[in-house]
Amino acid sequence: MDKEIDQMDDQQIIAAFNAHYGQRGLDPAKFPVLSKRYTTEELEERLSFYKEYIDIILFFVNKFLSTIQGTPILVTVTDQWGYLLECYGEPMFLEAIAELGIIKGVRYNEETGTGSVPLCLRFKRPFQTLGEEHFFEALHGMACYSAPFHREDGAVLGTLSLMTGVDSAHPHLLTLLCTMVDSVEREMLLRRNNAHLHTLNQVLLEANYQGVVVTDAVGRIIDMNDQYLRMLRLDGGDKHLYLGTPVLEHRLVSPYFERVLARQEECIGVELQDTRMDADNYYMLDVLPVFDMGGSFCRIIGTLRDITEMKRTEEVLRNTEKLVFAGQLAVGIAHEIRNPLTTVKGLIQLAGPTSGLRHYDLIMSELDRMNLIVGEFLILGKPQEIRFREDWCMTILQEVLSLIEIEAAKNNVRIRCTCIREEKISCDRNQIKQVFLNILKNAIQALPGGGRIDIVLEADGGYQRIRFMDNGIGMPEEVLERIGEPFHTTKLEGYGLGMMIVKKIIASHRGILNITSEPGKGTTVEMGLPIG
Description:
The model has no long low-confidence stretch (mean pLDDT 84).
């Protein structure tokens, strides 16, 4: 029968179903008791699921009913299985069908005989049954029209139906109903798209970890978030000042938007460096073309992520690798140099100053200096045992000055030391001597034509502060920023380890170090050691 029915027109289908019900022995004069229905809980669950659809249907139904006041029309909504979810219309009409047992929760199926709702769901297309086309005589005075409404994937989700008196029947009512269903489906699709766009808007524009800008197909800005304004340092801080303006005016990102505009090809993972401020900032840029449902280029979305901290971390890791290498180098040097150095020094000492060896004192002095240089490498090569004890800074400094005064005199450098206030510090005496010695050596080397070094001691803020000031050649900003990096030096015979050792020792003493310099005017090194 199903194969034959599929080849029939609507009138033939209705006649076939009426004949089928007659053959089953149903009495057209007795409208059945409808036994299949949802429980209260099941009905509430279905109403919750269909709420958005029902809200939209109600909006269009109210508009429709307002245009036909006085005409007895009932509007019903069912789910995909034919269970009645909602009824709207004239109260008298609602009461009339309620007397037949047609109320919310009941199911239209074979129990209700031939009708527009079961036929609509069976054949998945609009159907109408007028007057005596209904199997049961109780419905002969009605004209019923039903049309299916669908999900986005095309599956039938339910039916929307109109019921009126047979004397009010009109061929255009089914067409009007289909138009109403189309409007409902379009509105639902629009709401879903808007909800999807709102979600994307929240993910993109409201994300505080990235800057976002959206343009149209010719590069005019449609929207942007506050983070984008901050990253590009756009004046005013109000995005509405830039809406409608070309994104190509933003110098930092314009070349990549220009590429997407010209080729409609994405630019992914572009690293940008912004040098407009004192400190450089680094960003990762993605620029993506957007195409509409028809495949036409319609939008560009650009996102900026701040990777400045990541770049700084990479720099720290590179310096760490250098430190590891420096430590390995130091251990090798210690093994290769210190042992023969000790042997040579021991033999010369054994011979003694009376052995007639020329320049005995100078040789011993240079051997001591070589031993000191090897000691500097050993500080890098292996952990040093720090022996803290309370001591006076001025005492340690005077010992260092006595060691370096000859070198200072040879270079025509005057050293003046002033003690404003002194407090005892807890320190490793030998390591602090190493710090003072390295700083003073650098200061003397910065005075190739002679000059002055001023040393000031004062106590402030819980620290014993020692300030070394020279009037030497000074350093440019780019050199100053890299002080303390292993193997970074401006000296022809230097290794770039002296200030790295200074920083390491100061850090192990929980101290502070600050270096300022100006080319042609000199350098100031200020350190602070916690008061004991």
